[in-house]
């Protein structure tokens, strides 16, 4: 997957300008594409990766540095006793020493640092997909809450209509006063549910705006068609796309990092040598002489063994974690695919067969109640069934959209490519 880097700040500024302009007149509907552009430009969780990459670049530069030379000065045979009481027999030595790295340690360090940077880049890609999936989920949630709020308004309108119908029947002495009281209670409860749905909608809108760092929803409705059902690809095709998921690409990058760390640990089995050279001044005779030295630490291979064992174990752990993640992902993909199919079937069944029948039944029950053929209880029950079916339809359509978004996240499909 390619890194998603839109004209971030420009798109975000244009979006904000459009929102503020429309806020002075009528709030403009927010599209999914606009929400995604805003989140990619200003999501707080994505902002940190820029600094992580800068820090890793600094680590790479540090890894490329050779050991610094060491300058030392020693003075011997001073401030002692007898002939060495003063500085007459002093010996001053000035040396310059340099560690010479052997075994390709510097190249191994740089390789590990670069592999670390590649891992951060892939992690950023996965984080971007997480943000896109989160935007889609919250966007769908807002769309669902919009439908639920509209449904509660419909329920309130039906309850208000019922109060008027019952009141006419009571005035005509065709219904008892108790029916009017029950109708008024139903209306009050519908108004409470409408208010609750309105608060839910406000909360979900703010949660969506929080994904681009805005503490307030500066948009009106979201432009979404919940009932435009997705067309899932065959399961085998989706299964083949799992490798595109940045989460699995990340395992490959992590494996390369572990390989680089293992090479570095193995390079440290070979000891570095330190060469030195300098000048010694003999105060007693005024003579000078060169000083040359070579030092080599012993037991480097034995000391490197634990680090090699650790790096090897971490490399094997990465492979084991990848295999476990693949099993979980396949299982999750299958479950999501089944749930998506069920949600699509349920939505179509409710939309094409159940809701039309229930709508006709509601109209017929209203007419029958007005003519006195049905009781108030039958009319009230028909309303409840109608509202319940409409609510189930909204939930099924919303679930279908959410399951599709989850599958897209799991298979590494870019949500931004959706219309």
Give an overview in words.
With 419 residues, the chain is α+β, with helices and mostly antiparallel strands. The chain is built from nine helices and four strands. Strands 1-2-3-4 form a four-stranded antiparallel sheet, with no helix packed on it. The chain is elongated and about 135 Å long.
Quick summary:
The protein is α+β, with helices and mostly antiparallel strands and 419 residues long.
List keywords for this structure.
419 residues; alpha+beta; Outer membrane efflux proteins (OEP); four-stranded antiparallel beta sheet; 9 helices; 68% helix; disordered C terminus
- Record the strand order, biggest sheet: 1-2-3-4
Mean pLDDT: 88
CATH top level?
Answer: Mainly Alpha
Helix percent reads 55-70%
**Integer count of domains:** 1
CATH homolog superfamily: Outer membrane efflux proteins (OEP)
Please state the second-level CATH architecture: Up-down Bundle
Poorly predicted regions: 5-14, 16-24, 415-419
**What percentage of amino acids are in beta strands?**
5-15%
